[in-house]
Amino acid sequence: MANAPITVLRDTQPMPVVDACKWERIEGDPHTVNLNAYTSDDGSKIMGTWICTPGKWRVEYVKWEYCHFQEGYCIITPDGMQPIHLRAGDIFVVEPGMTGTWEVVETVRKYFVFA
């Protein structure tokens, strides 16, 4: 079935997906919940909510990501760069090709779009 020309998110009922993160855990025991509210027919675009408990990941981005933090605090450190501290209310974009670490200091809840 093809995606409708407009998807109203209040009408979606995302199924929670627990610990589906493919990144390598490098510190602590972080756990994730994905609530994917939309996935394009070809799977190239995904949006929803991501929740993660404290811990640290090694990350390698292959897609562009828009993030809007709703709760929590984390530190993203791109390889060879200074750490970036992100808190509730912050909006940011991660470009494809970014590698580094993502440390969740306080449980994070973020709205995301991968494209």
Automatic annotation (TrEMBL):
Residues 40-112 form the (S)-ureidoglycine aminohydrolase cupin domain. It holds the Pfam family Cupin_3. PANTHER family: CYTOPLASMIC PROTEIN, CYTOPLASMIC PROTEIN-RELATED. This is Cupin domain-containing protein. It comes from Stutzerimonas zhaodongensis.
